[in-house]
From TrEMBL:
Pfam families: Epimerase. InterPro entries: Epimerase_deHydtase, Lipid_A_modif_metabolic_enz, NAD(P)-bd_dom_sf. It comes from the Bacteria. Residues 5-230 form the NAD-dependent epimerase/dehydratase domain. This is NAD-dependent epimerase/dehydratase. Coiled coil: none annotated.
Length: 355
């Protein structure tokens, strides 16, 4: 049972929510919340410590506080939240390396809990219907958050070999949605006009923000369980999701999705990376048997209920966007044929919509 916990990333929404929930656990004597900027939200009874996990000072904090449990929440999924892809990778990869180096030297550390992601499985047409924890990606993510998550997990496995006495739990969370959290997926489904890969209807699983935090608290206070997939029960297809959010849709040939994605990304409205495009086309399924039997965790929200909770918090669609969709039908037809002019026409429409 954890007594003194150090939590990274408490100034981010999910990290702050986790700190507040952990504060309600009577067995936790002290909680240190670490981040580079002070949180704007409540972090419960956690003590905020302004520190960068990329700095060796984090090791001194662990030793002085006699930390026995480290919860790593500061693996960032969206580059626009950090000032760009370079900063995101440095925080995710270099930050994790330095944090684990500090954990290795801290003799008091007995447990490490890591918020990982189902993005480690990637998305490809060769994927199995369900990924179990012992399966590897059929097409390994080569860029972005998915690649970072694979590297983070690799460093954690290396740490476990150097410190076999430390209990380790890694939760591979499905895409987290909810009424408050902002992620690449929620930004995408909140667009006024949503580009979708033409001819694809990917299966998706979601995890409600409350369930994500509850699972992490269970991993912190319960027995160590290794690697576990965490997702809400059931699936939604991409078209079902679009029907729930009630947004106008622009079907886009997969070959032009990257062009459209770059325009949307430059607008600052959503992160539209190559791995995000692949997820929208091919989806991903998680086997949650270990979540039920080993972690002993039951999400309150199904995949559909989690997504509907998110959709209820969306602002109404911008008036007139339906007409924009009608205006680009000819451009889509040209792009379907593979003509460069069609793809360029679609791109021009999005440049006008998202200047």
């Amino acid at each position: 049972m954890a007594k003194v916990a150090l939590v990274t990333g408490v100034s981010r929404y999910l990290g702050g929510l986790y700190a507040r929930r952990l504060s309600a656990e009577p067995g936790i004597e002290r909680i240190l919340g670490v981040d580079v900027v002070p949180p704007r939200h409540s972090i419960g009874r956690a003590e905020f410590v302004r520190a960068d996990i990329r700095n060796p000072m984090i090791g001194r904090i662990m030793n002085q506080a006699q930390v026995d449990t480290v919860v790593h929440m500061n693996v960032i999924a969206t580059p626009k939240d950090t000032g760009g892809r370079v900063a995101q990778k440095e925080i995710n990869v270099i930050g994790t390396m330095q944090l684990l180096a500090a954990c290795q030297k801290a003799s008091t550390v007995e447990r490490l809990v890591v918020k990982s992601s189902a993005a480690v499985y990637g998305s490809s047409p060769r994927d199995p219907a369900m990924f179990a924890e012992d399966m590897n990606a059929k097409s390994t993510p080569r860029t972005g958050f998915g690649k970072d998550s694979i590297e983070v997990e690799g460093y954690v496995r290396g740490f476990s070999r150097r410190r076999p006495d430390v209990e380790i739990t890694m939760l591979r969370l499905a895409n987290v949605v909810g009424p408050q959290i902002r992620t690449a997926v929620t930004d995408y489904f909140g667009l006024a006009l949503i580009p979708v890969p033409l001819g694809y209807d990917a299966r998706m699983q979601f995890l409600h923000e409350d369930d994500a935090v509850a699972a992490l608290v269970t991993a912190t206070t319960g027995p160590s369980v290794g690697i576990v997939n965490v997702a809400g029960e059931g699936f939604l297809t991409l078209l079902q999701c679009l029907a729930i959010v009630r947004r106008p849709v622009l079907p886009v040939p997969l070959m032009t999705a990257g062009v459209i994605g770059n325009i949307v990304k430059r607008s600052g409205l959503a992160d539209f990376s190559p791995d995000q495009v692949a997820f929208l086309a091919f989806g991903r399924g998680l086997d949650t048997t270990r979540m039920h039997k080993v972690l002993s965790f039951e999400p309150r929200y199904t995949t559909r209920a989690a997504f509907e909770s998110f959709a209820r918090g969306l602002r109404p669609v911008v008036p007139g966007v339906e007409e924009v969709g009608d205006a680009v039908s000819g451009a889509v037809s040209g792009a379907v044929s593979g003509a460069e002019s069609g793809a360029a026409a679609v791109a021009r429409v999005f440049e006008r919509l998202y200047p």
